[in-house]
């Protein structure tokens, strides 16, 4: 009954064909169990009901197929794509078995430099706030403030503030500073979170669509054009060498149009050989959308009803 209800509404709000709308869901991690330090990442249990809802309400397609059908005006009613950014190992270990259970495809955007034992700079900071040996973390020498760490909530608030500032540092400096903060807080170097090359190949062989996400995840708008194009192209080449097939779709790191990426970068994605690209602008795509700047949205709600409601509301936020 519930299945029929949402499915009818989604088909009413998003008819297919030349009026087609595409909802592109965005995820980063799916945690084996809930983690108070990562309250915005769904647990396996939450992801299970999210995928159950999505699979019963939408026609889920891999992004490359969805983008080309959007362009050709041949989308099914209530079309959707499920995407993951960055290349976390939990995408294969936790999310993939759930996606397989509901038989829905997904697209995984991978920043190649962190595979095989690397760690992204943001995780250096998050793990530092988790493991800080003192309850006062003073980062004022990096111009990043000082934090009292009394409980999980203050640790989350602290790292969010630091990530918000550090995100816009020059990208070599950003990695250096994040690495330094991690080492001061005794974060083990071997604590890796990303997929190995073998895991990435396995995900691809099992049917996961692999997409580009640059090599080192820079904010493209902060790079000069030569360096930005180099990041977009080399990430794609490395992925193609790893999985032995064409990589067709791309996600801009951080991805807020006008702030993190722009029409120049959309042109670079096209030039690098991609067929479509996604941002993090929150909306639903229509046939009028730029195929190289498709919006994405995932409700932040943690109850099935609110998650479903907000997914439906997004269908009227089209660009
Ligand atoms: Zn990313």
Walk me through the structure:
The longest helix has 19 residues, at 225-243. The chain has 11 helices and 10 strands. The chain starts with a helix and ends in a 5-residue tail after the last helix. The chain has helices at 2-13, 44-57, 63-72, 89-101, 121-131, 152-166, 171-184, 197-205, 225-243, 263-271, 304-314, and strands spanning 21-27, 59-60, 79-86, 107-110, 136-138, 146-148, 209-212, 249-251, 276-278, 285-286. 43% of the residues lie in helices and 12% in strands. The chain is α/β, with parallel strands linked by helices and 319 residues long. The protein has 2 domains: 2-116 and 193-314, TIM Barrel; 121-184, no CATH class. The radius of gyration is 19 Å and the shape is globular. Helix 2 (44-57) crosses helix 4 (89-101), helix 5 packs parallel to helix 7 and helix 9 crosses helix 10. The strands form 3 sheets. Strands 1, 2, 3, 4, 7 and 10 form a 6-stranded mixed β-sheet that branches. Strands 5-6 form a two-stranded antiparallel sheet. The protein binds zinc ion (ZN). Zinc ion is lined by residues 85-86, 213, 217, 253.
